[in-house]
Structure formats: C-alpha cells, structure tokens
Amino acid sequence: MIKLTPRLDAVAGMVNNCDTFLDVGTDHAYLPAYIVENKISKRAIASDINPNPLMNAQKTLDEYSLADKITLRLSAGFENIEPYEAQEIAVAGMGGIMIADMINATEWLRDEKIHLILQPMTHFEDVWRALFDNGFLIEAEKTVCEDKRVYLIISARYSGVKSEHKLYEYYVGNLPKSDNETDKLFVEKVLKSLYNKYNGTKDEKILELIRSIENA
After folding, report:
1. Buried/exposed 102-128: b ≥16 CB within 10 Å, e otherwise
2. Which of 87, 90, 120, 140 could potentially form a cystine with 18 if both were Cys, beta carbons 3.0 to 4.6 Å apart?
3. What confidence tens digit (pLDDT) does each residue in 81-102 have?
4. How far apart are CA 40 and CA 90, in angstroms?
5. In a 3-state reduction of DSSP, which class is residue 150?
6. CA distances (Å), 111 to each of 73, 104, 171, in order?
7. pTM of the predicted structure, to 2 decimals
8. Cα–Cα distances in Å, from 73 out to 44, 80, 182, 187, 214?
9. Contacts of 148 (CB under 8 A, 6+ apart)
10. 146-168 confidence digits (pLDDT tens)
C-alpha cells in the first residue's frame, strides 16, 4: 500500500472518482499510483517534462504492479495530452507562473466536466489570477504543513463566469476568513513576504494589498 506525504495526501483527498486521472509533473508517480490503487480512478496518466522522472515512475509502477493501469507520458505541461483524456487533473509541485501559463494556454480545460487540483510552490497569486480571469470557480482551498513548510492546494472547475474579486483574493483566496491554523500560517507567510517587499520599495500598491489582506 502506497503511503503519501501530507502534501500529496491533501492533493489526493481532492480527487473525485473518475475513469481517468492525470498527474502533470508526476516525478515518481506516487500520486497516480495511490489514486489507482485506492480505486479512486480506473486508470491514470503520469506525465513529466523530463525522461528521468518517468524512469523513476516506471519503477513505482513495476513495484506495485500498476503498469497496465497507468500510462507514462513525456509531455511539457499539456503539450502531449489529448483534450478530455482525463476528467480529474492534478498539477502539483510546480511554480505558480508555470501553472498559470498552462491554464491560460489550454483551451480545453474550460469545461465544467474537468476538475483541476493545483498545488503551486510559488507565485500563488498568478494561479488565482489565471483561474479568475479564465472563468474558473474555486471549489475549495486547502493548506497543509509538511517539513515546517505550508503548502496550498486549490480545487477549481470552469464555470464561464468572470466576476469581480477583492484584491486580497488574488493572493490568499478566502483563507483569511478561515479559523484553520495552517490556513492562518499561509496567510502570515504571504503577509511577511509582502511586508519585506514593501520595506524594500515603499510601494503604496503593496501597502494597499497588505491592508486588503489584513482587513479581509
């Protein structure tokens, strides 16, 4: 039985039952192996931009006898993924700018039948902005601690509605309204980074953003 780290376990917890699950940037393919092994999905695609991670992934599939249910795919983002090949899609462990670029560039993601689970490592604001600007609805926001670091996971689905959002939502979503301790830690982390930027630049726009988060 595959045991996931807290970060990947939180991602897996947002995946719905489906026919095909796609893990973009799979590395060792632990996430799709877990999803298939626990019958959350009948099959999976594990993709990565580099061959070496896929070699590691192959070892995982061999170890857990899952090679007949999980397809390995060399792909830069969604480049070698066919539209609608998967219904549940996870993009975890990547920079937020890269994830945002994928959302902006991939038209077929704009379908309510496709569910995105996104776990950016940096530039969270770029991910939220890409989702908001492209008409995605945020279904859930979750944070989790692992090795003294706080990670963010966003569950989103296309709605086609582009509505107005508060300034703070582009940087911390609705997490300031949460009583969860890890959510509070994430907001504190973002605020600390913004204060550091403000102290270095004295940019009033950054101060406005800080006040928006603190007063959310």
Report:
1. bbeebeebeeeebbbbbbbbeebbbbb
2. 87
3. 999 999 999 999 999 999 999 9
4. 13
5. strand
6. 23, 13, 25
7. 0.96
8. 11, 8, 34, 36, 43
9. none
10. 999 999 999 999 999 988 899 99
